[in-house]
Amino acid sequence: MNRSNNSKADLRWFDVREWGVEGKGWKDTPNYYGRLPRRAEKLLPELGQRGRHATGLSCDFETNAHRIESRWRLRLEQLDEPNMNRATFSGLDLYARDQTTWRWAGSAHKHDSRQAHDTLVTDMNPVMRRFRLYLPLRNPVIRLEIGVPRGATFIPIAPRTTKPIVFYGSSIAHGAYASRAGVIHPSVLGRRLNRPVINLGFSGQAKMHEAMAHLLGELDPAVFVLDPLPNMDAALVQERAETFLRILLEARPHTPVVMVEDFPMTQAWIRPSLFRAHKAKWKVFSQIYRKLRDDGYSQLSYVEGLHSLGDDSTGSFDGIHPNDVGYERLANHLLPALRQILL
Fold first, then answer.
1. At residue 232, does pLDDT exceed 70?
2. For residue 343, what pLDDT is reported?
3. Residue 262 lies in a domain
4. Interval 39-52 mean pLDDT
5. What is the pLDDT of residues 92-127, one digit of tens each?
6. Same domain, 193 and 325
7. Domain end marker among 125, 157, 189
8. Residues 320, 183 share a domain
9. Residues 201 and 85 grouped into a single domain
């Protein structure tokens, strides 16, 4: 276990549960730092334990401390995996407010067990700042505390009551191959648009199950962003998308819903079969969009995916999942559509 060089005795510790974590859509989650209600594990057994991941969850606070530490307990002994490094899979990611902009401030990822303790940032000027701490994207969190030196001011900030942006998607929304939790595009867009975010990205399982549509319909966000196509082919889109969308649109008739095409795999320019597969599901997805618009669902909008990761093939680590450059590009691509809805 990695420890700060400074004595623990000179720190005051604050349990995040005392003021609350942002990004939860339901209160009745099986673990406090989880995303889906307890009943979802029976309704959607395909998801396994993914609903217990802390993906997208964050907490805000203010402090004038010159150093911020963290200690947190994780559920899994496994601390990383091939498509998520330790910082992303089980670490913490800290941002600070700099006038009107959120900027990265530090991370905690130098732990070697699920009982973790690490310094987030040190050697700061002791002035009051607002901070946002993002939780691990994959390893379920059992307990989380923030520590500051005795004598420093610490002000917890309760989760906002502003209507959130709800993202439903695949391992891309879930954060595969991001370097840190705060760089994935739902979190980037949350900071840029000053909105809470509920991240319902589920690696390999964004397949528009009807049960998920009903669960989403229980939420009351400012907008739904639906990005399931990376986990679907044209046949599955044809089979499920219209029913899924009708369930959600009927449940939330006044809530905007953005249908998002996936981006082409970054080798699709040189592998025609890949590009044909993308075009086939885009065609079906867009046909369903037009049909629903014709049926009077005017709250629907549509974002094409052809150029969303850029055209230079550098936005992905493996051709499928974005790297940090790719996540920034995805955020930039979605920003105009969301601004039009929200601002």
1. yes
2. 82
3. yes
4. 96
5. 999 999 999 999 999 999 999 999 999 999 999 999
6. yes
7. 157
8. yes
9. no
Query: Tell me: the pLDDT tens digits for 211-231?
Result: 999 999 999 999 999 999 999
Q: Are residues 220 and 302 in the same domain?
A: yes
The CATH number of the domain holding residue 93 is: 2.60.120.260
Q: Which CATH number belongs to the domain containing residue 198 in this structure?
A: 3.40.50.1110
pTM of the full structure: 0.96
Dump pLDDT digits (tens) for 250-261: 999 999 999 999
In whole numbers, what is the pLDDT of the chain averaged over residues? 96
Q: Rounded CA gap, 314 and 166, in Å? A: 28
Token reading at 136: 């691990």
Burial of 272 (0-12, 13-18, 19+ CB in 10 A): exposed
- What's the domain range around 99? 8-22+57-157
Last residue of a domain, one of 98, 130, 157: 157
Same domain, 108 and 197: no
The neighbouring-strand residues paired with 223 are 165
In this structure, the answer to whether residues 79 and 16 fall within a common structural domain is: yes
- Segment 47-70 mean pLDDT: 97
Does residue 35 carry a pLDDT above 80?
yes
Torsion angle (degrees, nearest 10) of CA 216, 221, 226, 227: -110
Q: Is residue 132 a contact partner of residue 147, using CB atoms and an 8 Å limit?
A: no
Section 192-210 average pLDDT: 98
What is residue 4's predicted lDDT score, i.e. its pLDDT? 41
